[in-house]
Amino acid sequence: MDVSGLVWAGTLVALTAVLLVDLLIIGRRPHEPSVRESSLWVAFYVGLALLFGAGVWLTSGASSAGQFYTGWLTEYSLSVDNLFVFVIIMARFGVPRQYQQKVLLVGIVLALVMRGGFIAAGAALISQFSWVFYIFGAFLIYTAVNLARQGEPDEDEFSENLLIRWSRRALPISKGYDSAKLMTHENGRRLFTPMLIVMIAIGTTDVIFALDSIPAIFGITQEPYLVFTANVFALMGLRQLYFLLGGLLDRLIYLSYGLAVVLGFIGVKLVLEALADNNLPFINGGEHVGWAPHIPIWLSLLVILGTLGVATAASLIKSSRDRRRELADARR
User: Fold this and answer.
1) How many angstroms separate the CA atoms of 230 and 11, rounded?
2) What is the model's pTM?
3) C-alpha dihedral, 81 to 86 to 92 to 93, nearest 10°
4) What is the pLDDT, as a whole number, of residue 27?
5) What is the rounded CA–CA span in Å between residue 291 and residue 197?
6) How far is Cα 63 from Cα 38, in angstroms, rounded to an integer?
7) Beta partners for residue 191, in sequence order
8) Strand 183-186 and strand 189-192: pairing?
9) Is there a contact between 112 and 15 (Cβ–Cβ < 8 Å)?
10) Which domain covers residue 73, as residue numbers?
11) Which of 19-33, 164-178, 239-253, 254-268 is predicted least confidently?
12) pLDDT of residue 69
């Protein structure tokens, strides 16, 4: 793709404007959105992503559009997985439901900033060193294996990282929340509220998920514009999706296994591409590996859609059966 500076600027301005609208809504009235409100916003953001992909198709062809849609779907699925951790953090720190919107929005803004930095670094590395695909591929395969072993995390498995533990010890923290504020006055003292610790927990979690998502998207496309926009659209509407899914997140018990398959597939794809463009002297004498197949974008899209569809359907069937069994046991 030949993306001009004007197109980049226009895209950034438009996406920033959408984000500012979200900020103004929360700033005016922190609340727990209804199912209808959440549904409309999620539908709006998904429609916006589909419309953007259609624009890419018209201006740059089907291949670029396919890369955007595949990347967006992958990043969107990983973002949904983020919600599991967000739910655990909210429950662990007892964040009132009406203030969770602000936490989520801050988390999304932090994720955008971090992913933007990682995208820039990844693009610079790839342009200079093609062998970085070996590292990205190995990292995704390693992540996939760990995800398949661990499954979805639960509250009992959540452990506070070093930064959170240090913040608890070093900072003066109030006993309770004061609306969604980060600071409050208590007995004449100016203290941080537990909301600050929640923000730190969300921010450090964003770093971990950015490390997974950026290699994944570069395994689908190396076009920085598509990488960036796919990530932004995947994060848009995540706040509303959190409230829309609600208890449904607990029922997606096989989502982590589906994501493990997706990450493993993309990891293998990256390694194969690295072999096809190999220039490392200790691999095949520094020559390209001719037998390494190229996986087309349409096949990647089918694999990702099929895997996530099967994982979601299996999760809902299993949770439905478990619920019926529990009701039957309760009647006995």
Assistant:
1) 12
2) 0.81
3) 170
4) 52
5) 51
6) 32
7) 184
8) antiparallel
9) no
10) 5-331
11) 19-33
12) 94
Return the amino acid letter for 115.
R
Is residue 85 within 8 Å of 210, Cβ to Cβ? Answer: no
Count structural domains, the chain. Answer: 1
DSSP bridge partners of 206: none
Cβ atoms within 10 A of the Cβ of 121, count? Answer: 11
Mean pLDDT of 136-144: 87
Task: In whole angstroms, give the CA distance from residue 28 to residue 18.
Answer: 16
**Predicted pLDDT at 249:** 67
Residue 236 has pLDDT above 80, yes or no: yes
Tell me what the pLDDT averaged over the chain comes to: 82
Q: What distance in Å separates the CA atoms of residue 30 and residue 65, rounded to the nearest whole number? A: 37
Sequence-distant (≥ 6) Cβ neighbours of residue 65 within 8 angstroms: 53, 54, 56, 57
What is the per-residue pLDDT for 26? Answer: 58
Find out whether 52 and 229 touch, Cβ atoms under 8 Å. Answer: yes
Q: Is residue 119 within 8 Å of 222, Cβ to Cβ?
A: no
> Contacts from 174-179 at CB under 8 Å and sequence distance 24+?
177/95, 177/96, 177/99, 179/30, 179/99
Lookup: tokens for 280? 């490392």
Task: Give the 3-state secondary structure percentages of the chain, helix then strand then coil, rounded to 5.
Answer: 75, 5, 20
DSSP 197-210: HHHHHHHHHHHHHH
Residue 55 has pLDDT above 60, yes or no: yes
Percentage of the chain with pLDDT > 90? 13
- Name residue 230's amino acid: A
Coil/strand/helix, residue 38: helix
Instruction: Report the pLDDT value the prediction gives residue 52, as an integer from 0 to 100.
Output: 95
Render pLDDT for 101-121 as a digit per residue (tens, 0 to 9): 778 877 778 888 888 888 888
User: Residue type at 24?
Assistant: L
Question: What are the residues facing 189 on neighbouring strands?
Answer: 186
Q: At what angle do helices 255-276 and 297-331 cross, to 10 degrees?
A: 160
- DSSP letter for 171, please: S
Q: How many CB atoms lie within 10 A of CB 119?
A: 20
